[in-house]
Specification:
8 helices; 198 residues; Rossmann fold; 5-stranded parallel beta sheet; alpha/beta
Length: 198
């Protein structure tokens, strides 16, 4: 860090932002295999929260790679940097008082812990737990087919590992729940933990 760079404290406090928005900020970190339903569930939650008057923003993995992270590949180091950048951006949004959703595979526990350490108490890990065989059956982008043919190297769940969260705050088993049920489970968690009003 350059010694000429100085941190400036904001004149608006977190409490003031919470009061203005009517809810606390948080970072909903959706993690799971490709095709698990992360983006679908995250968007369903975002719609419910928006209609309840909450201030939200959703950072989706593919969307972010079109811009902010368009220079990154899919090797382990690029994936780590992808998650580091997203963590920084999401934390800024949460600091502004928003409920932020991030829908990324984020396959490595260490990277998710780095996000948790930065976001602190606002971090809520949402494990979108879908069996690999179901993800492959869905294969909405045709990625598993390509990965099985060896056309996509370092593909999570096939040629690169996915480290499942050992103790996520929210565990969504998509083979047992509808999208609506999964979204409601997450919203109920936010109500129970006083992130949003009942």
């Amino acid at each position: 860090m350059n010694s000429n760079i100085v941190w400036h404290n904001a004149s608006v406090t977190t409490g003031e932002r919470n009061e203005q928005k009517g809810h606390a900020p948080c970072l909903l970190w959706y993690t799971g295999l490709s095709g698990s339903g992360k983006s679908t569930i995250a968007n369903a939650v975002d719609r419910i929260l928006f209609e309840r008057g909450c201030h939200t923003y959703l950072l989706d993995g593919d969307n972010v790679r079109h811009g902010l992270n368009s220079d990154l590949g899919f090797d382990d180091n690029s994936r780590k940097e992808n998650i580091r950048r997203i963590t920084e951006v999401a934390n800024l949004f949460a600091d502004a008082g928003l409920i932020v959703g991030t829908a990324f595979i984020s396959p490595f526990i260490a990277d998710r812990e780095q996000a948790r350490n930065l976001a602190k108490e606002t971090f809520i890990e949402v494990f979108v737990d879908t069996p690999l065989e179901i993800c492959e059956q869905r294969d909405p982008k045709g990625l598993y087919t390509k990965a099985r043919k060896g056309e996509i190297p370092n593909f999570t769940g096939i040629s690169s590992p996915y480290e499942a969260p050992p103790s996520p705050q929210i565990h969504i088993e998509t083979d047992k729940l509808s999208i609506e049920e999964a979204a409601n489970q997450i919203v109920e968690y936010l109500v129970k933990h006083k992130v949003i009003p009942a």
